[in-house]
Amino acid sequence: MKRKTSLISELMSAQRKRLVLLGGQSLALGAAIAGQAVLLAEAVERIFVQQAPLSSVVVILGSLLAVMAVRTLLSYGNGRIGLQMAASAKTEMRGKVLRKLAHASVPSALRGQTGGKVSVALDAVDEADSYFSQYMPRMMEAAVIPILILIVVFTLHMNSGIIMLVTAPFIPIFMVLVGLKTKNKSEEKFAQLAEFSGTFLDSLQGLVSLKLYGRAHRQQQEIERSSLGYRDATMDILRIAFTNTFMLESIVMLSIGIVALELALQLLVFKSLSFHTAFLILLLVPEFYSLLKNTGTAFHSGRTSMGAVRKVEEMLAETKEERAASDRGDGAGKTDGTGEIGRVEKADKADKADKADKAEKAEKAVKPGTAHLDLIRMPPSIELRDVRFRYAPDSFELAVGSVSFGPGEQIAIVGKSGSGKTTLLHLIAGLLKPIAGEVLVNGHSLAQYDEAAWFEHVSYITQHPYIFAGTFADNIAIGAGRDVSRAEIVQAAEAAGLAAVAAELEQGYDTFVGEGGRGLSGGEKQRLALARAFLKQPAIILFDEPTVGLDLHTERILQRSIAELAKKTTMITVAHRLYTIRHADRILFMDNGALLDYGRHDELLARLPQYAEMVHVQRKGGFA
Ligand code: ADP
């Protein structure tokens, strides 16, 4: 991908004002540097050569101090602008990364290592800092001030100017050479860091499993290996940086030496130069080279930052490409078999016009802002039409024929473990996209709906709901997707049978749960998910029933809450409990990726031996 700096130029163009200011300040800084040298040379000339009394140079010394102060202020100002540019750029980049992640389809956002993404969002963005805070100000200074100094030197003494002009290019040439050598080093460093972060986070999250399976030591070695890899990559970069600095210093020293030698010859041997001029040039020359040299250091950190920015850019491009792939049409994802969720917003126009009227009504009936969502009837009817799905080529294939569920029906999906129940649930939820066929919601392909708008109507109660780090109340409140009052939260918690749990928590609803807080049991987590659903009042609930037995009391509470929730929704449950299965309006029996049969409990019992057997096993208490 040859869009190396497009993100940078995009970020820079947003800061044009600051760049102009930087240019102006650099010019003033150049003038201050020249002025300082002139005043200093003048003062030295008067005091040491003309032996003038100190009182005669008071004004000069005063001006010198003032110019020095101005110079410091301007330098500081440039640094500040750099920092401000870096801060805005970083905020912008983080925002972009987060927006991309938030807008990416769920499976693609989940794909890859979480740690790796964290390292891009935090470290890579941080590393990009120096491009704006160091590289840009230094480059601007280097573009303006040395030219100014050269002009001054040329007007004073041609030879010195020529020497400077001839030696100066060695610094950028050398930088280019080093740059070529380090080209991929910083990207390598980032790859290593991402791997290290990923391994570390995986290990932390899986600590219990790793310990139980005696893999802790292996994982420790793994962490050690990747941390050593990261160290080596860092050391490589440092080695190059140090060599770089050493070489630059040598070039600068040599160049200053040549100018000084020439000045000495002119001054002492040929006597063609005044002390004042020679001294002034000698003051300006180190400034000239030190600016160019700073550019070298800035260039190096700029390169490292570029590597980091490219990482961010790649991540942004990745999600963009995925989006494009799924936008390419009614099922571009159909061919890749990765099960991407499409965000097809360009629903058929004619169809839209046709439905505009209805949609308008729907807007009033449904939540605001979802006019384009043609969910006129709530709860919706759902239809599967020759849906096929594969996680990867030559892997498990799910192929359900055509089946439809009326609004508000209670559906139970049953079958052996690995028969594709969860996959089917995810397809209906729109978390996975079929490779062929389609899921219709209220008669329209799910792909036509805006993903976010669709999810507004869906609650998915998994076996292991995620508990975010925050208070118990916050965790319930996220279900609503809006600001909710404490009373609403308490009401939802009560409906989900959580009131007693909250009462027992140390600080009630304000107890910290999730990472870093108090842990919750499996049953409590599921009830929390139910409470979220009560707040959300979805039109469709997907429920992955717990496989593990809960105590009778909790079980009752769950059943009652679910029945309450199910009243106004189309509910699709991956069912393990005979109670749920028997009470379902329709049972889908999955076997090895195929929908073997569907119907009511008594119907299936009569005609499907596998179902009868499952019920039999279940009755004996052996089926999970
Ligand atoms: P069930 O819910 O009935 O236990 P699943 O739908 O979870 O079954 O899984 C069906 C098949 O799909 C299994 O063979 C499983 O290994 C496979 N599978 C599930 N999730 C993935 C995934 N993310 N990638 C690849 N294969 C998967």
TrEMBL record:
Residues 26-304 form the ABC transmembrane type-1 domain. It holds the Pfam family ABC_membrane. SMART domains: AAA. InterPro entries: AAA+_ATPase, ABC1_TM_dom, ABC1_TM_sf, ABC_transporter-like_ATP-bd, ABC_transporter-like_CS, ABC_transptr_CydD, P-loop_NTPase, Type_1_exporter. Residues 320-333, 342-364 have a biased composition (Basic and acidic residues). SUPFAM superfamilies: ABC transporter transmembrane region, P-loop containing nucleoside triphosphate hydrolases. It is found in: Cell membrane. The keyword Transmembrane applies. Its main location: membrane. Residues 320-364 are annotated as: Disordered. Keywords: ATP-binding, Membrane, Nucleotide-binding, Transmembrane, Transmembrane helix. The keyword Transmembrane applies. Residues 382-617 form the ABC transporter domain. The chain crosses the membrane at residues 51-74, 139-156, 162-180, 237-261. It is a multi-pass membrane protein. It comes from the Bacteria. This is Thiol reductant ABC exporter subunit CydD.
